[in-house]
Amino acid sequence: MSIDTLDTTHLLALAAALGWASGLRLYAVVFFTGLAGAMGWVPLPAGLQLLQHPLVLGAAGLMLAVEFFADKVPGLDSLWDGLHTLLRIPAGAALAGAVFGGDQAAWATAAALLGGTLAATSHVAKATTRAAVNTSPEPFSNIALSLAGDALVPAMLWLAVAHPVWFGLALVVLVVASVVLTLVLFKFLRLLVRKLRGRLGGAPVAV
User: Fold this and answer.
1) DSSP states of 74-93 as a string?
2) CA–CA gap between residue 60 and residue 28 (Å, rounded)
3) pLDDT more than 90, % of the chain
């Protein structure tokens, strides 16, 4: 993932990747991005160089470890997602906007809007999927999905820098899949809640 410079295509891909991945694993995004800059693998834009600071890396690494284990526990993962709803989306927007910095206000604003939207899309899809999976008594599918997210985030960050065009294609596929999955699973969860309410209340439930 080592390159000498980031051109506009790479910067756009990086902004999109930071936004999208923040909706899944915010602390992993901060840690891996900062680590890549600190190790000299990627020349981070000025707005992201703060992530290279040892204190930021240490805090992000600690929270990454906490999130790694919390995300593997059914029920706790949904609670964790709920608590981070108000953090992941604005953080995704801020990280995406920081790719272009204050010297390119128009690009930074557009990137922030893009990053926030992508973060919201991935976060909602993740939270909805994990809530649906948690209705199953076995924990293995939950752990498998969590491990897939652990692997997907650094893979997409790497792809954005190394092969931005391929990243763009992969991102389109993932966003479309996320929207479809969210709509389908939201209907499933809504029906499940209505059935549970009907059983608890003793009243018939209209499907």
Assistant:
1) TTHHHHHHHHTHHHHHHHHH
2) 7
3) 63
DSSP state of 40: T
Predicted confidence band of residue 17 (pLDDT cuts 50, 70, 90): very high
Backbone angles phi, psi at 101, to 5 degrees: 70, -175
Distance CA(97)–CA(83), nearest Å, equals 23
Please answer whether residues 11 and 160 qualify as being in contact, where contact means their C-beta atoms are separated by less than 8 angstroms.
no
Q: How many helices (H) and strands (E) does the chain have?
A: 7, 0
Based on the number of CB atoms within 10 Å of its own CB, is 130 exposed (0-12), middle (13-18) or buried (19 or more)? buried
Decide: helix, strand or coil at residue 196. Answer: helix
The number of residues making up the chain comes to: 207
At 83-117, the pLDDT tens digits run: 998 899 999 999 999 999 766 888 999 999 999 99
> What pLDDT, in 10s, does the model give residues 114-137?
999 999 999 999 988 888 888 777
If phi > 0 it is left, if psi is from -120 to 50 it is alpha, else beta; for residue 42 that is beta
